[in-house]
What does this fold into?
Amino acid sequence: MIAINSSFHSVLASPEEVLSAIARAGFEGVLWSQMGKGDFHYLPAERKAVVKCFRKYGLCAASVHAAEPFRRLYYSENAWHREAGVELLLNRMELAAELECPVVVFHAPSPFPVDTTAIFAGLDETFRRGESLGVLLAIENGETEEVTPLLQRYPARLLGFAYDSGHGFCQGNAESLHRECFSRLVTVHLHDNDGAHDQHKMPFTGRIDWNAEAVKLAGAGWKGGALLELSEKCHDVTSHDEFLRQAYSPGVRLERLLDSAAEGQLA
Amino acid sequence: MKCSFETDYLADFHYHCTVESILAPLAAAGIRDIFWNMQGEGDFIYLKPEMDEIAHCVKAHGMDVTGLAAPHVFGPNRCCWSEDELQRQSGLCLIENRMELAERLGARLVWIPAPSPLPKKRSHVMQSLENLILAADKHNVVLAVESCIAEELSFVLDAFSTHRLAWCMQTALCALGGSAGMLLERFGGRLALVRASDATGYGLARLLPFTGCIDWPSLLANVKAVSPDAAFSLDIDVYSHLDCSQMEFLSRVRKAAEGIAELWDGKVE
It folds into this structure.
C-alpha cells in the first residue's frame, strides 16, 4: 500500500477536498491526521461523514493520528484536563474503529515527566475504556520525547511503536530505536530530511539511506507499505494535485524497496 | 433582581486560561452572579470533565449561573442554521452541548444568535428551531435568541409560541439602531434575557451601564412593563474601559450590576 497523510497541506478543510485529491493522485491509503492541532472533538455525525468519504473514494485508513491538544492532555496533572485528554484520545480511537483502521498514533509529553503518575493514570484509563474498540495505540518517536518508558509499562496487545523515520534521523537515535522498539513496530511515518531539520520531505530527496531503512523495517516484519507523512511546504509546487502527483512516485519506489527488503533481496 | 456578569469580558477562553483563573478575580471583586460565556468562537464541544471542572469552580466560589452563551460565531462545520444536513446536525449538537452544561450548572437560559441574515430558503432553519425546542425541553432550559431586527425575531418567535423559545435583547445594539421601543412593544412578551451594555451613540462598543447614552431608568421601566421576569446580564467589553486595573474594572462592574438591580427594584428613581 502507498499512503499519505491527510495533513500534507495546511489549508484543505473538508474530508471531501482532501480525500478526493489523494485518491486522484493514485494513493490507496491515508494516514488520517485532520484537525491534528488543538482540542477538536469529532461528533458522531462527523465521524460518519469521514467514513463515508473514505468509502466513496475507495481509500484505506492506514492510521489515525491523535490530536496534539492545547488543554486536553491525557498526561495533565490537572485531573479534569487529563480526563478530557483521555476523552480526546478515545474520540480518535472511535474514529479509527469506524474506519476499520488498526492503529491510532500519539505522542508522549516532551520533556518526559520525572513523576509519571499523571501520564500513567491517563493511559491506564484510556486503555481501560478503549480496549474494547479493537484499536491499538502506537507511541511515536517524536522530535524529542521518550517512548521506551511507555513501551516497557504497557504490553504489546495495548501499545505498539510508530516509527517516524524523519524524527529518528534528525535526532540521531534511529539506531537505538531500532534496537529497543522495533520489536513493537505497528506502523510508520516515512519521510526524509537533511539531518538537521524535521522537514517531512519526500523519500529520496533528503539524506536518509532508504536501503538501510527498508532492511531495518523488513527485519521488524513491516509489511504495511509505504506510509508517507509529508509536508507540502517543503516542496516547490503550485498546487495540491501537483504535490500529490510528485509524492506518489517516491511512494512507489519506496514500496518496491520495502518489498525487495522483505524478500531478502537487499543487503 | 440580580444582574449577572458575562465571563468573556477579557477575551475568549485561551488554552492557557483555567476556569479558576477566570472566576477567581470575579469572586474577589464580589461578583457572585455570572453568565457563562466562553469558547464563543468556533466549534468547541465541552466534554464531561470540563463541565465538571466549571461546576466545581462555580460551586467553590458560591456563584450562581444565570445562563450561558452558545458560540456567537459558529465554526465552519457546526452551524445549526446551515442548509448542509451534516453541518446542521453538528450545529444542533453544539447548541445541545451548551444546554447540557446549563443543566449541569443549574442555569435556566441558553443564549443563541438568530439566523442572520435570514436565508431565502428557510425550511431547514425551521427544522432546527423545532429540534432546539425539543432539546430545550429535555434539558429544562429556555433558548434566548438574540436579534435587534424585527424580521428575524418575527420569523423565529411567531412560528413557535412555546416558552422554551424567547427573545434576547442586546441593549447597545438596540440603541445603535434606535429600535428598542419598537422591539419591546412588538416582542416584549417573549423577552427572557437582557444583555445589558451601554452605547456610545455612534459605534458598537459595549460600555458599562451608566457610562454611555442609554436612558437606563426609562429602558428598565419599559422592560419591566412587558417582561417582569426577564433576566439581566452585563455584556461588557473591557477594552472600552482600559483606564483602570482589572480589579477596579470588576469593582465598577459590580456597582453597575447593583445599580441596574436597584433601579429595577425601584430602590432609586
Summary: The two ends of chain B are 16 Å apart (CA to CA). Chain B has nine helices and ten strands. The CA atoms of residues 6 and 35 of chain B lie 5 Å apart.
